[in-house]
Amino acid sequence: MANEVLTDYVAAAAAVMQQAQQAFEAYKKVDAHARAVFLQQISAAIEAAREELVAAAHEETHLPLPRLNGEISRTTGQLQLFANLLQEGSWVEAAIDTADDTRTPARPDIRKMLVPMGPVIVFGASNFPFAFSTAGGDTASALAAGCSVVVKAHPAHEKTSQRMFEAIQQAIATCKLPQHLVQHVSDTGIHLAKALVQQELTTAVGFTGSLAGGKAIWRYANERERPIPVFAEMSSINPVVLFPGKLRQQPQQLAQQYAASITLGMGQFCTNPGLLLAIKGEGLNEFLQSLSDEIKRVAPQSMLHEGIYKAWQRNVNTLLEQQDAELLVQSAQEAGAIAPLPVIARVQAQAFIANPVFKEEVFGPFSLVVECADKEELKEVLAQVKGQLTTTLMATEEDLAAHQDIVEIQQSLAGRIIINSAPTGVEVCAAMVHGGPYPATTDARFTSVGSTAIQRWVRPLCYQGFPDALLPDALKNANPLKIWRTVNNQLTNAAL
Questions:
Q1: pTM over 0.85
Q2: Is 233 labeled as catalytic in the residue annotation?
Q3: What are the strands of the beta sheet with 414-419, ordered from one edge?
Q4: How many CB atoms lie within 10 A of CB 372?
Q5: What residues contact 286, with CB distance under 8 A and at least 6 apart?
Q6: Listed residue (72, 13, 76, 11) closest to 41, CA to CA
Q7: Is residue 270 annotated as part of the catalytic site, yes or no?
Q8: Gap between the Cα atoms of 43 and 45, Å rounded
Q9: Which CA distances in Å does 172 have to 19, 158, 159, 181, 252?
Q10: Which residue of the set 60, 147, 270, 371 is catalytic?
Q11: Which one from 233, 294, 360, 361 is the annotated catalytic residue?
Q12: pLDDT tens across 130-162, in order?
């Protein structure tokens, strides 16, 4: 019986991916302008359903209405960002080296650009029902690239995901694009997810979630006869170095800033500052006292769902049970059913270095303070930290000048290094990097936020000796597109 069930999942995945492949074959021929209009239509359909979508997500995730309205705006903004990118055109990285018959041997005509990979699987994220889920950044960037998409809905907000999918379907119909360009799967088990990843027509996967989930998907992809890339964002504790000068100068202000950041959205952000590092001193003592006062006043809010709450509770208890771990402060407010009391714990540097438990993510309203005896011990601690999405320096100009070696270490840790602001909050723009070394992601060369997120779903293709009529429009001599190209090492605007 078990084998029959698994066979059913494999057959279901094959059917879905066959439809995705057929849609891709047609969609990859759709020009950049039409794809941009399609993304704008998705944005408009989401905006038209804003009130209904926000209500559904609020019911399923417990996230507050202002947060969800902001996330809707971020989602529509991402779609517009990629529409603008398609209109501008430079993302295809068109390069043309024309033939040179005067050279010996003669150089052939060689042209290159980025082309879409094929059908993509996108796994929705539990903590972002809009911006990292059905019509979020992974889907938007994949559609911009020219790929078809199969969305695996997150079980924490299936109704919201289904309604977002309906908005995409409206846009597909309006733009007269292939019916199965975007498909929606809501099965809650792992078997269909595995079958989709391992189906031979799948070309890439986007995932935002836990380390265990990301590693499982990465393993499925590499068990295939033809392995495929998995772009998984998984685990990050986002270390913050609080330098001595800054602590002496602004202990209370820093405490207010970081109490708010640690508890923002009940800590359910992948950029939550889960590790605070500092050298012992009066400035640190004042900061910790103020941080304790601020945390005590934080009113607990419900987490996304019971599973996340129980995992947070289990992880906090495991950490606090470790020898040398100290509970520094816990909120003094009344907890709800799945509303945790925010926690700050403390450990000394050598204990942190010796115990791997202290280096693991505690997803939720929690941060671990690591006290270092001096600069050398701080460097030892940083050397033990794994790959991160962000790392932050809270520092005066004098601190930065005196700790250049610390700054150098931090640049190797993460995809984004920040000076004098909290890491929570990710701006959607061309310069943003939301990625980092493992285990933050499976591939530190890419970002899941910002316009360069499109690079995950494309590959370079070289055309040698092609007549102009057979070339893609971006590479033709008489280029009909507004696009920047490199022609014989000269950057030119190819618009006619």
A1: yes
A2: yes
A3: 326-330, 343-348, 366-372, 275-279, 239-242, 388-394, 414-419
A4: 22
A5: 247, 251, 252
A6: 76
A7: yes
A8: 6
A9: 15, 21, 20, 8, 52
A10: 270
A11: 233
A12: 999 999 999 999 999 999 999 999 999 999 999
